[in-house]
Each structure stands twice: as structure tokens, then as C-alpha cells.
Predict the 3D structure of the following.
Amino acid sequence: MKEKEKVRVFKIGGKVIDNESLLEQFLIDFSSVPGKKVLIHGGGKIATAISEKLGIKAVMVDGRRVTDKDTLEVVLMVYGGLINKKIVARLQSLGINAMGLSGADLNIVQAHKRPVKTVDYGFVGDVDGVNNKGLSFLLDNDILPVLAPLSHDGQGQMLNTNADTIAAVAAIGLSASYEVELFFCFEKKGVLQDQNNEDSVIQEISFSDFDQLKSSGVVSEGMLPKLENSFDCIRKGVGKVIICHFSTIKEIDAAHFPGTLLHG
Amino acid sequence: MKEKEKVRVFKIGGKVIDNESLLEQFLIDFSSVPGKKVLIHGGGKIATAISEKLGIKAVMVDGRRVTDKDTLEVVLMVYGGLINKKIVARLQSLGINAMGLSGADLNIVQAHKRPVKTVDYGFVGDVDGVNNKGLSFLLDNDILPVLAPLSHDGQGQMLNTNADTIAAVAAIGLSASYEVELFFCFEKKGVLQDQNNEDSVIQEISFSDFDQLKSSGVVSEGMLPKLENSFDCIRKGVGKVIICHFSTIKEIDAAHFPGTLLHG
């Protein structure tokens, strides 16, 4: 059987998006990563800042943005326009043939509006599927997809979707055709053994380790959904998930990559 | 010699962008136009409205937007995000595999920052070239490019560029490989003989007619740059330019298309 080609999927969010010089350095490092790759970005703080300037109050429930009609317009503007186009322009200047996409472009991420249960999240999309053929078509033509955290419902409605979720579904989708490594890049060096010690990075976590970490209460509350999401990816075909600091991806081919490796 | 395949390039702006139900109807009509096509949109009034809400004063010189750093962020948001993604989502719902692009995506429109002469237009791009190969690649894969009026300088800087200009350079670029028809769709039924009579549409204008119209003063001041731009396209290889009302494109294959046809 022919070995699958590798695709690396990177998700960035938080400080690296909010701070222009950190983003600049990340994109330089990112452009040096060899092989096929996909970039997914968030942009929550900028969306909140623009919302406030426009007099729209940002409402969060369990860390998720409630997206009314006005807020949807803000995230379309900030994620789909402002952040996405700045990243694409910078990557083009670094010699990368980048192409920005929302979930509607090429029908890349289809979703449905989240049903109202106890909370009405508004125009938030729960993902139904990813257009793997579309993503592969871009990758196989040496185009680097830069995905904004936006989906659509196929009936003309754009929807707001969490960037971690978009990264996960894209990674799972691509794993049908490629050997996929998914990198969640953020402010910390990885999953920490001790929340008060930034250097207490756990190097590897397997399924069984994860069960132990959960029962022993080592994993912080904020990290738990990220890990659940990551192990779900591994269960669904993603080869490896790496949780790492955004400044470390230049060391991507080092023998000991400085982050937390999750595997089956 | 093999006959060139036809591509129709449509530019929309003004009322059809500002009014959701007019845009909806336009996109339905547009989706029924057969064959390969490209859509270019403006969005000036919405950008002005968002600018005002954000406390940024819109400054226009000779009908062109002066684009300072804050205004650039607004046009990236409004053109690249809000309007572009709404159009793409609607077209996808109509069965069209649309793909939204700024000039940076796939390096589609390269430009340089306009040199300061008497007026400093700020982050406005004068177009250097269009990536014909990129556009053809999309068209030949049954993807419909939806271009926002944004360019980039290849060094990481996004720039604001007039939508009529983007439409013209895209049409000229594509005419190397295709038989191109360029449609400027707007509020009037075409070029008017009498500015006070909406029905006094001039059916055809040739180069020599245009010289006559200019010297006789029939053409209005606002129409003059549009016509100069259009005849420049014809000089550079575009087969036909049509100036028409946005509601008429459903009649595109009618024997007498109700607009003004410009030709060599």
C-alpha cells in the first residue's frame, strides 16, 4: 500500500493573533515548515474590541460567543476579512501561495445553526462536514488554505464556528487521504503537570494516560475540552496531535519537539 | 485555430450591494447565467457606514476613498469579509461553487501603493498585474471567483483598489485565454442620451461614436471615466463591454440585451 503523504494542520489563536509582531514572527516560522500544510486562525479578542467600538456587547457563555445578527456581521468582518486577509498577504510575501477561505468558499465547512436548548447561541454553526475534496484540490496544487473560523449552512447563511473545532474537523477530514499531524499553537509550552510551573510540560499523553490525568485532576479545566477534542481527532484518524507554544514551530523537525504529543 | 471559450465578467456596485433583497435577486439571476463567469463587487456605502460607526471619517477625493490605516482595516473587513462572504454563501446555496478572493488570495491582483502627487490616497493600490493563471485555474475547475476590490503589494501590505479597475484588469487579463465579455451592472439602464430620460439608452457605442459623444458633450461627467475605462479594455483585448442595469442580466442571451454595448 502506498504511504500517505503528510499534511500538517496548524491552529493559532489568542496572543499570536492579537499582537502584530508575534504574528509576523509566527508566519515567518510557519513559512519555513516544509511540506503540505493548512492554517486555521481564531481572532476572538479583536472581534470583541471591534464589537465594543460598534456598540455591540459581546456575550460569552462557557467561553463561547453568543452570535446575534450584529455579532455575526462583526465576526464575518474580523475573521473573514481583517485577520484572514492580513495573514494571506503576509504569507504571499513569504513566498507561500496562500488562499483564505471561510466555510462557504468552495463549500469547505458545512454546518447547521446550533439548536436552542438551554442557551440560544444565535448564528453559531455545529459542523456537519468538511469538503475534503476541495481541501485536497488546493493542497495538491501547492496552495495553502488559510481557514477563518466561519462555516455556512448551505442555504445562504454564514455561521460562527469555534476555530479549534474547524481545525479538528479539517484534520479529521484530511486524514482520509493524508497522514495528518494537528498542532494547537497557543501561549503555553504544552499541557502542564503543574499550572504554576510553565516548564512542567508533559511530553506525551496516550489515551490511557489521559484517563489517569483526568481522574487525578492534573489537567486544568480550561485544558480539558482541548484534550477531549484532540483525542477525538486521534480516535477518528488523525495520526498525532501536538499542543505547543506558537514560538516553537520552527523546531518542528527537532528530535524532541518542545510541546505535548498526544497519541493513541 | 481553436475558438476561445467565453468568460463573462460582471461588476456590481451601488444599490445592488447596499440593499439585501436587490442583491438576493441579482444573485438568483446571476446564478442562471450559463458558462464561465467572474463576479467583482464593490461596497462603498456599507464601508462608509461602518467607518462612521467606528468614528472614522470617510474622506473622498474625486470620488475615490482616501484610505488611511484605520480605513484600510474597514475596507478589509467590509469588502473582504462581510460582503464577500455573504455573496459567496448565497451563491453556494444556489448551486454555484463560489470562491471569494481578495487580491492577496492566490496572488490574484498585485499592485503598488499609489505614489503621492497632489493627493495622498494612503493605502490605495494601483494595479500592476493580474494572476491570469490563477483565475484560469479556478474557472477551469468550475469554480466561480468572487473578487473583492482589494489588492496587495506582494510585501505583505493589503491595498484598497476601485472595483471598476479590478473588473477591468481581470477582464483584460482573461482575454489572453478566453473570449471575454465585461458587464458593468449599475442603477441605470445603460449610457443615456438624455440624463433626464431613464429610457434614452444608447444601444451601441463604437470607438468613433465615443469620440463624437465626448465632443458633443452628451456623455455625463460621471459616465466619462467608466467609458474611458471600458474602451481601454476593448483596446486591450476584451471583446465586448456592456453597461447595464443590474436587473437585466437574466436576459443575457436575449436578441436585444437591454443595455449599452461598447465595441471596437
Remarks:
- Helices of chain B lie at 15-18, 20-31, 44-53, 69-93, 132-140, 163-174, 207-216, 223-235.
